[in-house]
Every structure is written in C-alpha cells, then in structure tokens.
Write a structure and sequence with these properties.
The protein is α+β, with helices and mostly antiparallel strands. It contains nine helices and eight strands. The strands form two sheets. The protein has a six-stranded antiparallel β-sheet, sandwiched between helices. A two-stranded antiparallel sheet has the order 1-2. Helix 2 crosses helix 3 and helix 4 packs across helix 9. The longest helix has 34 residues. It starts with a helix and ends in an 8-residue tail after the last helix.
C-alpha cells in the first residue's frame, strides 16, 4: 500500500506548480496592460515600479515576453507591444469589426450621427471602427485611439459590466466626489444598459453608449457622440437606436 503521506506531498507540489503558473500568467497580463497604456514610453524601471515587482523579477518577465514576441524593446530601452501580439490583436479586432459593422450601419442610419465601435483593452477603450456623421459639425475619434473609462459613454458602459473590485481599481485615483458620481451612474447603467458622457471627456461633445460581451469574451461598446446641443435635441432618438443595437446577434447571449 502506498504511503498516504507521499501522496499528499505529491498533490501539494502539483497544486503549487499550477499556482505558480497562474501567477506568472497574471504578471504577464498585468505587464502587457501597462505596456499597452503607454506604448513606447515605459522602461524596465517603470515596469517593475508599476507592477510592484523586484527589478530582477520584472526583467525575467520582460525577457520572456520579448522571447515569445509579445513585447519589444528598442535601443533606448523603451518597451512596446510585440509584433506577434499585435498581429493577434489585429486579427481579433478585424473579426469584431466585421461582426458589428451591420449594427453600426443601422445605428448611423437611425441617428444621422457618428457611431463608434470600441473594445476594452488594457484598462482603456480602444477604438476599432467608426462611421462618420454627414454633418459638417461632427464628433470624430481616430481609429486606434484609446479613451479612459470613467468619463466616456463607452467606458462607463464597460465599467458597468466589470466586477466591483475592478471598478474600484479604476476609480481609486479620482477625487472622492467624482468617484461617487461615477459609482451612482454605474448602478443606473446596470439597469438601463445605456451610459452617458455629458461634456465630460471633451467639452462641447456629449455621447451615449452601450456595451456587452462578444466572441472570445471581449467587452465591446457602441457609442454615438455628437455636439452637445444636437445630442440633447435628439437624445431619445439616439438612445432608441442604441437600445435596438442591444438586440444584435453580434453579442454573446
């Protein structure tokens, strides 16, 4: 009969190995998030400081990411996302864009305004597609641009889908009064499904947005920005179009 103590030790080691592997993956994901939020601007010293890791640990992590093509370091030591990861991200974004394009077209036709498609990446909203309004005065965001979560319609709609602990991490740097206001908005969004940016991110521009989960677990948002005066006048029409977009088959049920 096998010694039960030996079996217990073997199981413990197996569990410990799995835990170590998960920890490495979490650290790698956290590192990539930091790199994505400041591409080409961080160095090793910034990475280990932001992650709260020893410099030697951060160096090993970075070396591993570079070896598999998920990160790159230039001659000045500045870190950016690697070609392999960018290729995967581009393919993923192209799939999402293709799936949601008909929905964006319907919203654009119903509102006559610019319609944006964005995806949650690295603690920000990454814009991946857009249909521009025919109006001479219109809101336009650059494809590939990144917006913050707490002061944008697409960002707030995304926050409403996150766990409370993740929401608090986003709100932690904000002034208490601002954080409290955003928390109250998130509670409303979780019921109404529609989020608003009322001259918050860009003066003179307001927006409404929705978010949901798409293929691969991606959080995707559709938003309609417009000059505030026109947005206010046509808000009901914009919100109705966005609510209709929630019925799109592009979302995961």
């Amino acid at each position: 009969m096998a010694d039960p103590k030996i079996s217990v030790v073997a199981d413990t080691r197996s569990s410990s190995t799995r835990d170590d592997g998960i920890q490495v993956l979490r650290r790698a994901a956290a590192a990539l998030d930091e790199i994505a939020t400041a591409p080409g601007r961080l160095r090793l010293v910034d990475l280990h400081s932001r992650l709260g890791l020893a410099k030697s640990t951060a160096r090993r992590l970075l070396v591993g990411l570079v070896e598999v093509g998920f990160a790159a370091v230039d001659d000045d030591g500045r870190i950016s996302l690697g070609d392999r990861l960018l290729g995967l991200a581009s393919a993923n974004a192209a799939h999402i864009t293709s799936a949601f394009r008909p929905t964006l077209e319907r919203v654009a036709e119903a509102t006559g305004e610019t319609v944006d498609l964005s995806v949650y990446r690295g603690g920000q909203m990454l814009f991946i597609d857009q249909i521009e309004s025919p109006h001479r005065l219109r809101a336009v965001s650059a494809i590939g641009g990144r917006f913050t979560l707490w002061d944008t319609a697409n960002g707030k709609a995304t926050l409403a889908l996150l766990d409370d602990s993740d929401v608090e991490a986003v709100l932690a740097p904000l002034e208490a009064s601002v954080a409290d206001r955003v928390r109250a908005e998130i509670r409303e969004i979780r019921t109404s499904r529609v989020a608003y940016d009322r001259d918050e991110h860009t003066s003179g521009i307001s927006a409404a947005g929705i978010a949901g989960r798409a293929a691969g677990g991606n959080i995707v948002a559709i938003s309609v920005p417009a000059p505030t005066e026109r947005f206010t006048a046509h808000r009901d029409r914009i919100v109705d179009a966005l609510r209709g977009a929630l019925e799109s088959s592009a979302w995961c049920s």
